[in-house]
Amino acid sequence: MFAILSKEFNSYLNSLIGYIVIGVFLVATGLFMWVFPDSSVLDYGYADLQSVFGLAPWLFLFLIPAITMRTFAEERKGGTMELLLTKPVSDAQLLLGKYFACLLLALFALLPTLLYYVSVYQLGDPVGNIDSAAVAGSYLGLVFLAAVFVAMGVFASSLTENQIVAFILAVFLCYMVYTGFDLLASIDAWGTASYYIAQLGISYHYSSISKGLIDSRDVLYFLSVITVMLLATKLVLESRKW
């Protein structure tokens, strides 16, 4: 698994896709954080990173599928999938190796944003006047969000040999699970059930954990979605034996 992880991660760093994803993420968050007047922390007057944490899920919604679209689709199209499956590696090891490689690249994009926290910490009046617990919770929420999106992207890639189709499927799946349940819950026809429908979406749990309160129910939700998507991907890989 670690050999596959290393190979996949190095392949991203040896191509433009890894640098493009990280660059686009940092440029976009930097512009909203420091430049655009409607969201700039310098004009806003409050020492927080909400402009970053509010924008990051929508950036991940497109950037993570761009990372994951090649995981299995490229192997199928290139005819190397069968060769890879004949190696002394289980389907689970193959899946987890590719999954963690994509997740690691997504987390690498988050690392430089820690400089934003240090900057706002120093700019606060007095110095350190920032809700560090909320920031930590928001970062944890982004880690879980990236992990879920990567799992969905890998699943979408396992369904087709076309990378564009895999990208579109992943974006649609991530969007529907992230905010689709909120839109569904907003329909008046559900009554009191709308509250429980909203809880099925990622947005509800991401907003909850971003407040700095780490609830075991939110953590369990993210882990459950990741597990379900990885098991679904494993099932797709095993379908060749049927």
Automatic annotation (TrEMBL):
Its main location: membrane. It comes from the Bacteria. InterPro entries: ABC-2_transporter_component, ABC2_TM, Motility-assoc_ABC_perm_GldF. Residues 51-188 form the ABC-2 type transporter transmembrane domain. Keywords: Cell membrane, Membrane, Transmembrane, Transmembrane helix. It is a multi-pass membrane protein. It is found in: Cell membrane. The chain crosses the membrane at residues 12-35, 55-73, 94-118, 138-157, 164-181, 219-237. This is ABC-2 type transport system permease protein. It comes from Rufibacter quisquiliarum. The lineage of its organism: Bacteria, Pseudomonadati, Bacteroidota, Cytophagia, Cytophagales.
